[in-house]
Write a structure and sequence with these properties.
Elements: H1 9-19, H2 24-31, H3 35-43, H4 50-60, H5 64-68, H6 73-78, H7 85-93, H8 108-123, H9 127-148, H10 151-170, H11 174-191, H12 194-210, H13 214-228, H14 235-254, H15 258-275, H16 288-301, H17 305-313, H18 323-339, H19 343-356, H20 358-362, H21 365-376, H22 383-392
Length: about 400
C-alpha cells in the first residue's frame, strides 16, 4: 500500500501550526482538544473529524477549507471544471445593473423550466453539465427579472442563484457560494417569498456549519424558522421547517450538544410523519428517509460512530431519493465504519458514494478524509483501493 499523500489534512494542520510558531501543546490548548489526538492527526495516523477541523480552524483563525485543502485545484483543472467557475462569478456580479440591452431573454415559463431542470440535474450529480450551462441562464434570468419586475421573475432568479450556490459549494468554492446566497436572498426579498427567504437562511447556515461557526449557524436557523412563521400553513412550509430542524440537528451534533440535536431530530421526525416523502418540494428531499439519513450524520458528529454505523447499515433508501444525497449518505456511513474499524465495509461505501454521484464524491472532503484514514490503517484492501486513490488524485 502506498504512503499517505504528502499534503493530507494532518500535514496541513502541522504546517499552519508551525507558521504561527505554536507547539502542539499550545494548539491543543487553544483548540480545546487532546494533545494525543492532535499528534496522531498531524502524523496521519488519525483522520481529522469535522469537529476537530472546526476547532482547529477557529484556534488558528483560518478557513476550514484551508485545512481541508479546498478547492482541490489540481483535480478541478484536470477535469476542466475550474474554467467553468469564472463565468458564473461574472454572472453573479451584474445582479443589480438592471436589464442588459444586448440580452433578449426567453419567456419566463421557459426559463423556469430550465431552472428546475438544473436543480434536478445537480441532485442527479451532473455538476459539470450544470456549471457549463448556468452562466447563460443567470444572464437571461437577471435581465428577465428586471424587465418583468414580478414575483415570478424574481423567484426564478433566486432559483438560478441557488443553483450557483449548489455548484460552488460542491466544488469547494466557499467564497463563491457565499456570494450566490447573498444574491439569492436579494432576489427572494424582491419576490416577497418567506419560504424562499427561509431556504436561503438554511443554506447560509450550512456554510457556517462547514466553517465550524455553529453558534452563527444556529442563529440563522432560528431566524429561518421565524421567517417561516410569516408564511401560510402549507405542505411547502412544513417541508422547509422540517429541513431547517435537520440542519440544526447536525449543527448541534457537531457542536457536541446532544440534547439540542435530539430535540431538532424529534421535531423533524414529527413533521416528516405529516408530510411523507417530499423529495421534489424545493428539491430538499425532505421526508422520513432524510430524517433517518440525518440521524446517521448526527450520531457521527457526536462521535458515536458505532450508533451511526448501526443506524446507517440497515437503512433502505427509496429509488426516488436524489443520488447526490445518496452519495453523501454513503460517505458519512463510510466515515463511521472507518472509525469503528470496519474497514472493508467502509471502503465499499466509498465505492457506493462514487457510483451514486462521481463528480460530487471526488470533491467531497469526507470522502477524501475517509480514504486517507483507511490508508493509514495499514490494512490489506483490494487492488481497487489504489485505483480509487488514483481517481481522487491523492
Amino acid at each position: 500500500m502506498h504512503a499517505l499523500p504528502h499534503d493530507h489534512t494532518g500535514a496541513r494542520i502541522k504546517r499552519l501550526r508551525l507558521e504561527r510558531h505554536l507547539t502542539q501543546q499550545a494548539l491543543a490548548d487553544l483548540a480545546q482538544i487532546s494533545l494525543n489526538t492532535l499528534q496522531k492527526t498531524e502524523q496521519g495516523r488519525l483522520p481529522a473529524s469535522p469537529h476537530l477541523v472546526g476547532r482547529i480552524s477557529r484556534a488558528l483563525r483560518v478557513e476550514v477549507s484551508t485545512i481541508n485543502g479546498q478547492p482541490y485545484a489540481t483535480e478541478l483543472r484536470a477535469d476542466d471544471l475550474d474554467v467553468l467557475l469564472q463565468p458564473i462569478r461574472e454572472a453573479l456580479d451584474v445582479f443589480d445593473l438592471g436589464p442588459d440591452p444586448e440580452v433578449r431573454p426567453r419567456p419566463l415559463p421557459l426559463l423556469h423550466d430550465d431552472a428546475e431542470g438544473m436543480l434536478a440535474a445537480v441532485r442527479a450529480g451532473e455538476i459539470k453539465r450544470v456549471a457549463g450551462q448556468l452562466p447563460g441562464l443567470l444572464v437571461e434570468a437577471t435581465t428577465a427579472a428586471h424587465e418583468a419586475g414580478t414575483t415570478e421573475g424574481w423567484l426564478l432568479l433566486a432559483s438560478a442563484y441557488r443553483t450557483a450556490y449548489d455548484v460552488a459549494s460542491k466544488l469547494g468554492y466557499g467564497d463563491l457560494a457565499t456570494i450566490a446566497l447573498a444574491r439569492m436572498d436579494w432576489a427572494a426579498q424582491r419576490g416577497s417569498s418567506a419560504v424562499v427567504g427561509a431556504m436561503g437562511r438554511y443554506m447560509r447556515a450550512l456554510t457556517y456549519l462547514r466553517a465550524g461557526q455553529y453558534r452563527t449557524g444556529a442563529r440563522l436557523v432560528s431566524i429561518g424558522l421565524d421567517t417561516l412563521g410569516q408564511a401560510d400553513a402549507t405542505r411547502e412550509r412544513d417541508v422547509l421547517t422540517g429541513q431547517l430542524h435537520l440542519g440544526a440537528a447536525v449543527m448541534a451534533g457537531r457542536a457536541q450538544n446532544r440534547s439540542a440535536a435530539e430535540v431538532h431530530l424529534a421535531e423533524a421526525d414529527r413533521i416528516a410523519g405529516q408530510t411523507g416523502e417530499a423529495v421534489q418540494v424545493h428539491w430538499l428531499a425532505f421526508g422520513p428517509t432524510n430524517v433517518a439519513v440525518h440521524r446517521v450524520s448526527v450520531f457521527a458528529e457526536l462521535d458515536e460512530y458505532g450508533a451511526a454505523a448501526d443506524a446507517g447499515t440497515g437503512l433502505v433508501i427509496p429509488r426516488e431519493y436524489p443520488v447526490s444525497r445518496r452519495s453523501h449518505h454513503f460517505a458519512e456511513l463510510a466515515r463511521a465504519q472507518m472509525w469503528t474499524g470496519d474497514l472493508d465495509d467502509a471502503f465499499q461505501n466509498l465505492v457506493r458514494a462514487r457510483k451514486a454521484a462521481p463528480q460530487q464524491a471526488k470533491y467531497h472532503p469526507t470522502v477524501r478524509e475517509t480514504y486517507a484514514g483507511l490508508e493509514a490503517a495499514k490494512r490489506q484492501l483490494p487492488d481497487s483501493f489504489l485505483s480509487y486513490g488514483s481517481w481522487l488524485g491523492v
